Amino acid sequence: MSEAILATHHLQKRFGAVIATEDVSIDLRAGEIHAVIGPNGAGKSTLIKQICGGIQSDDGWVELMGRDVSKLNTQKRARAGLARTFQISELAMEDSVLENVVLGAMGAKGSPWQFWRAALKTPHLIERAEAALERVGLLSESETRCAQLSHGQRRQLEVAVALTLSPRAFIMDEPMAGLGAEGSKQLTTFLDGLRAEAPILLVEHDMDAVFALADRISVLVYGKIIASGTPDEIRASGEVRDAYLGDTL
Amino acid sequence: MRIEERFVNATVLVGLLGVPLWALMIEEPFTITLATRAVILALAAVGLNVILGVGGLVSFGHAIFFGIGGYAMGILAFHAQTYSELDLGLFSTSGTNSMPVIWLVAMGFSAFSAFLIGLLTLRTSGVYFIMITLAFGQMFYYFAISWPSYGGEDGLSIYVRNDFPGLNTLVPFQFFALCFVILCVVLFIYARLQASPFGLALNSARQSRARAETVGLDPMRIRLLAFVISGAITGLAGALFADLNRFVSPTMFSWQLSGELIVLIIIGGVGRLMGPVIGACLFVALEHFLGGFTEFWHVFLGLILLAIVLFARGGVIGLLTGKEGAHV
Lengths: 249, 328
Ligand SMILES: Nc1ncnc2c1ncn2[C@@H]1O[C@H](COP(=O)(O)OP(=O)(O)OP(=O)(O)O)[C@@H](O)[C@H]1O
Ligand SMILES: [Mg+2]
What we know:
The complex is a heterodimer. By secondary structure, chain A is of the alpha/beta class. Chain A is built from nine helices and eleven strands. In chain A, the strands form two sheets. A six-stranded mixed beta sheet of chain A has the order 7-8-9-4-10-11, sandwiched between helices. In chain A, strands 1, 2, 3, 5 and 6 form a five-stranded antiparallel beta sheet that branches. In chain A, helix 3 (97-108) packs across helix 4 and helix 4 packs across helix 5. The two termini of chain B are 17 Å apart. The longest helix of chain B has 27 residues, at 219-245. Chain B contains 13 helices and four strands. In chain B, a hairpin with a 4-residue loop joins strand 1 and strand 2 (92-93). Chain B has a single domain (5-321), classed as ABC transporter involved in vitamin B12 uptake, BtuC (Orthogonal Bundle), CATH 1.10.3470. Chain B has helices at 5-25, 29-54, 63-82, 99-121, 126-145, 172-195, 197-207, 209-214, 219-245, 255-268, 275-293, 297-311, 315-321, and strands at residues 86-87, 92-93, 156-157, 247-248. The A-B interface holds A 52-54, 73-76, 78-79, 83-84, 86, 90-95, 99-100, 102-104, 106-108, 110-120, 122, 125, 145, 161, 164-165 and B 192-193, 195-204, 207-208, 210-218, 222, 325-328. The structure holds adenosine-5'-triphosphate and magnesium ion. Adenosine-5'-triphosphate binds next to strand 2 and helix 1 of chain A.
């Protein structure tokens, strides 16, 4: 098996009496999509925040390319190669689509410390930004104000911004949510190709997408990984059926 | 009604230049002084607009930098006019009457103070940031009051306006023109800054801190630099303001002044290039025309502010151009 790009070790997080993550050790290997599924409130988004920054773990650590990044803040982890997309869109709503993606290109190219040339007239930023928009099919909307985008387009924009970072790993929190059948299908095809560029840790409720895409699936319930394996193994697991999948399959 | 923002901007500048030109022809020097006052207040508010308009942080302590600029001028000119030494420990100086030197000192000290204050305050945001910058402002105010060497509560009078090479700064129109050119240069810098990668980062950190962090940008450092730039511009305005009045006093540090700068921006249009300029012109005009009738002209200012906040969230510029947001 290929080496782990990203690995969590014994992550732990409590909110008062709520145990959000309990001894979570998972990894993400080159070229794969590793799906994390689980019921609402299982702690999936919390796990993502522990990986990408935003929540300090009570215990455990996170390694990216063999380096402990748990003490780094969000922006340093992003620069180290983690690209996160949000369950609820985090975008500069007053700005245009292009400006949002240029922001990502700036982050990737290292520097907001340029004060004179207009960002939207800086060729290497624009090239990078437009290439990302093209890939998610949003190039025609580049002048549109973000606030005027449909819900689905905002989801696409989140992915486009992540692409501009050329990350080591993608961490995606329910990218299909609210996309509709057609949108989910398109994004599924897109993510399928994307894993060759960088592996994807995919939190997703859309089981069709998960079973179509995932190389491995981990099931998180009440903060604990109760099962981990190939899609076939997970499908066959009685425990998972009881805890989560029920009769959706 | 929808007018191109460029057209509005150009009209405002032409008007601001035209009024004192006209006053020059009909020999009304006081009108020129009023216009100069508007230009300087506009400059101070352009400085505030960097951190407030683009950065989204409502600094209620910007009078600090206005006051520092004022006292930089006051102290340097005081030593020059009394031929006394200003002993700074490491070296001593006998002050100066040169405006460019005074401006550099004003901007340097303002920028340095902004850096220190920013380090301490920029971890907060929203109401907390307002309160803590207000608190710093009060500290400076009371310090100035209780500093007897430079006039304490009474302030400092400077008898002759400082010099600028090639100009007679005591001629009202020449001093106006100098201030007007500085305002134009700073507006140009503001516009470049706002469109630059730095401006885009500052602006998006205002809209979504998480978004900026997730692409690897550091909102704290970006805001700190914006605060320093913002303070330096307002400090420069303070030095000019002191030279306009040939007088500095602790009121330059007062919270009322901080509040007025915020009000100027809200009236004109938050984050808009010409917002502070329009706000300052309206402010000075109201102060002059209504202030003649009633001591309570601030009430009218308050009513205008209320109307703008309730009905025209993009300020006067927003009304004219039909665009509410600053960055459409
Ligand atoms: N900042 C917080 N403070 C307190 N409790 C929190 C906080 N964040 C999350 N929780 C709690 O931790 C648990 C896990 O939440 P989390 O958002 O990680 O779940 P999730 O698996 O992402 O759910 P969903 O599928 O609905 O997105 C929930 O019980 C939630 O209420
Ligand atoms: Mg979640």
